[in-house]
Amino acid sequence: MKKLGEHLQHSNPSHEQALRQKLLATQSQAPVQTKKLFFFSPAFAWGAGCCVIVLAALVSKPLFFKTSGIDPEEYAMDSYSFIAREADMADGAGVVMNAIVSRMPENVATQKDEDVIDYEEQNGAMLEQTVSVRLLTQEKDASETVATLFASLGGHLASIRENDDAYATITGSIPATRMDLFYEGINDLVKNENFMEKNVQGDSVTSEALDLADRETALRTAEKDAIAQLQAAKTTEEQAQARATLESISNQLAQIDEQKKNLEDRVDYVTVSVSIEKLPAFWSVQNAYQLNEYIAGYENPTLWQEIEINVLTVFFLAARVFSVAFWVIIPLGIAVAVFFRRRTFLRQLE
Amino acid sequence: MQRDFFSLYDEYYPKLYAYLLARLRQKEAAEDVTQQTFEKALANLATFKPRHGATFGSWLFAIAKNELVNVVRVSQKTTVVSNDVLAQTLATESLVETLLRKEVEQEEHEVWLSILSAIDTLSDDEREVITLKYLAGMSYDDIAALMHKKPNTLAVILKRALEKIRVTINVCKK
Question: What is the mean pLDDT of residues A211-235?
Fold first, then answer.
């Protein structure tokens, strides 16, 4: 039948040429758009949209194990506060600390009192430190070892709370001069566990100390005046008044002494909060963040733990790649399948 | 994709002429309708825009079908006549070619006639699809756009039509 068709198609070449010449006389040179330009086709729009989505996902998503930074601008400007998370790989102790060190914004310093600045430049800042440590472990008696450590370093235990999510949250205070020993003690006492985070916050109390000092100086001066006033008193009333003033000043001085002592305690002792949490098990890892914790929890993993880590890593990496490529692979696969299915079906009938 | 009109003319003239000749069964009528079709296409070229699956071929053949309807409506003489007229036409032309060629394909000529007879026994859709696909050499996409049917539907119609033609020819042979 095709041969019949070909014969009919080319059976009148003379008329074909004659008509062509006739049409040329009234020709339009305008080109004929026979197919829709690809760039305006739905397929191109879909492909472009998917590419934009994929690129946006790749750019906005953080790296697999990247930790996010902290903006120092978030913190109070009226106190000398800083956030420091220090990275420290203690040799042989199996301790890993994720860390980001951020610096104090410079403009904060201009807001402090000049006296405070001068004092700190000469004597260093007086800081009231607060340390929070987050420890992941699978050993349930880790809380006891940490509590023992507090006592051995001359610290004080404030509270021990135990709950279902975390094994324990231990709060206490440790002498500031022994914080290094505290960290080393954690390393020594707790094997194969890892600190995931250590947050150190220091609030400057220098201005408070200087304020107390200024008040004490003023009171001392007032005390001298009161003593002189007492010595110069001629009447009983003047003596009584002078004694009353002196007593008031003494009370205030006593309060200042107490406040100074309290301030010294706050500076000399660091408030430490240790949160001991359960290290996620292999089957309970649900997202990349928990995977990060799981991997960091095994500084020296066994062979089986190594296999588990690799399986989880590959799984989450594949999930991430698939989620990014989802908008491209599935529509493209459907389109290709439909195209080849239709072409094969039609060819079978030819 | 933009092409010059006359390159499209070179591509579609044979197909259009074969289609009209198969439908009208008269050479002069087919020439007239072919000319009218291309003249209209050239005049309305600016209005043609490929959208919703429409191609230049389907647009051209749509114009041809409208012209065909007008011709049939105007002159009853141009309704489908018997294959004898077409056979005579073919015989005349093939005779001319035969004089130029070395071998004679008489058997092939008879097969063609039987095929054309079998096509007349088909339904309108089947006849249309067979004519467009095998005689005019149109693609499935163009036929689908012209007849407003899905290519898969066309394939089913085509398969049914071929089966009927095969049965008809076998019956005729017997």
Answer: 89
A344 touching chain B per CB within 8 A: no
**What ipTM was estimated for this complex?**
0.73
Q: Which of A12, A24, A28 has its CB closest to that of B17?
A: A12
For B:97-116, CB contacts with A below 8 A are: 108, 112, 115-116
Distance between CA B140 and CA B132 in Å, rounded? 9
What's this model's pTM, rounded to 2 decimal places? 0.39
CA gap A197, A88 in Å, rounded: 11
Rounded distance, CA A96 to CA A137, Å? 13
Contacts of A270 (CB under 8 A, 6+ apart): A129, A130, A131, A173, A174, A175, A176, A179
Instruction: Flag whether pLDDT at A225 surpasses 80.
Output: yes
A2, A10, A11, A22: best to mutate for the B interface, most B CBs within 10 A: A11
Please tell me whether residue A275 adopts helix, strand or coil conformation: strand
User: Residue B3 pairs with which residues in a beta bridge?
Assistant: A32
Of the candidates B86, B32, B84, B64, which has an alpha carbon nearest to the alpha carbon of residue B142?
B64
Search chain B and give the residue with CA nearest A16: B13
